[in-house]
Amino acid sequence: MGSYCRAYRADCILVWLGKLEGWWPVSVACKLRGSTLLKAALGCGIAMLAMPGASVAQAQASAPVVSRPVVQPLPPAEVTKLNSALRVLARNSQNIGALIDAGNASLAVNDIDAAIGFFGRADDLSPNNPRVKIGLAAAFVRTQRPIEALALFDEAERAGTSAGALAMDRGLAYDLVGDNAAAQRYYLQALNGRENTIARRRFSLSHAIAGNREEFEAVLLPLLEAQDFASYRTRAFGLAILGEEDEAIAITEAVMQRDMAARIAPYLRYMPRLTKAQQAAAANLGIFPRAAQIGRDTPQIAGYIGRAEAGRNADARLTPQGQPLGAKPDNTSQRRRPDRGEARLSRCV
After folding, report:
1. Coil vs helix vs strand at 336
2. Where would a tag sit more exposed on the chain, N or C end, judged by fewer CB atoms within 10 A?
3. HEC profile of 26-62
4. pLDDT tens, 289-316?
5. Structural contact between residues 208 and 222, judged by C-beta atoms closer than 8 angstroms
């Protein structure tokens, strides 16, 4: 995506810098891209950025004045937080807290490239900051980079972050490498003492990927009873993973528009053919493998799974097996069986 501009308010023109972190106020964008800003502004026809003040005044004077009511909906809370962080960064582009807030807000509006940019700059300025590592790890999970994400989660925990703060995205990272047992432990932590609909959906899908239909249904049931619409999609994908494609398609036809249900049906039929890691990516993130990769993990994930299995096998070999060491107890001794001597005496008599 190229650079371009938009006027957010009369006193705040935001500039999109593509994969270099998203929307930025002009003052910050100038520091980041320099002359790119002017090119972007001219390309979008925002000539007022290059006009002298008198020319702007003349242009405004010549334009007819038309009174129109202005009705503008309030932006979502995440957008408000992002704009607030951007205003802080316009004054100080190295403000760590504002970079973290902007990164988290970008994640909330699903602008993952922007989030990685904000957290990446924050990490350059504060390499050992656990909040930065958590945010960057969460962004890596969304872009299907679970191995890098798991390393960052470990670093954040060593830096003092509580396991509960990491749990939901950490669980998904483990699902994305096919380790459902580890994923489910972290989902339980995320749900410990507080309800989280996203964590519950992911927890349910993890059981489906592991082949446990009973737990899949039980975990998801409270959300279905509450008529959480997204949970019907979760149930459809979980059933497809479990091999019940016809039942899954019936659900989508019942709750979705006909054309949307028709578009999603072929993907549901693919689900049983995917690897565990691919099923997690498809059901949670909507990321499907190419046709040639169906049923084949990437070399990175395959290598991770191989190392994990080798570690588990090594642990199993260390488990004690066979009879305990030492002499067996002598059950024929008269000290252990005093009645044996009495029996011999009675035979002699």
Report:
1. coil
2. C
3. HHHHHHHHCHHHHHHHHHCCCHHHCCCHHHHHHHHHH
4. 999 999 999 999 999 988 887 876 655 5
5. no
DSSP three-state, residue 13:
strand
Q: Which residues contact 100 (CB under 8 A, 6 or more apart)?
A: 118, 119, 122, 129, 131, 132, 135
DSSP annotation string for 164-192: HHHHHHHHHHHHTTT-HHHHHHHHHHHHT
Helices (H), the chain: 26-33, 35-43, 53-62, 77-91, 96-108, 112-125, 130-142, 146-158, 163-175, 180-191, 197-209, 213-225, 229-241, 245-255, 258-270, 276-285, 299-317, 338-348
pLDDT in tens, 255-268: 999 999 999 999 99
Q: What is the pLDDT of residues 102-118, one digit of tens each?
A: 999 999 999 999 999 99
Contact assessment for residue 127 and residue 96, using Cβ atoms and an 8 Å cutoff: no
pTM reported for the whole predicted model: 0.70
Under 8 Å CB-to-CB from 16, ≥6 apart: which residues? Answer: 1, 3, 4, 5, 6, 22, 23, 24, 40
Q: Kindly report the number of other CB atoms within 10 A of residue 278's CB atom.
A: 26
Exposure pattern of 299-318 as b/e (b: 16+ CB <10 Å)?
eebeebbeeeeeeeeeeeee
pLDDT at 214 over 50: yes
pLDDT digits 0-9 by tens, 160-201: 888 788 899 999 999 999 999 999 999 999 999 888 999 999
Contact, 20 vs 117, CB < 8 A? yes
Give the number of C-alpha atoms closer than 13 A to the C-alpha of residue 261, restricted to the C-beta side: 16
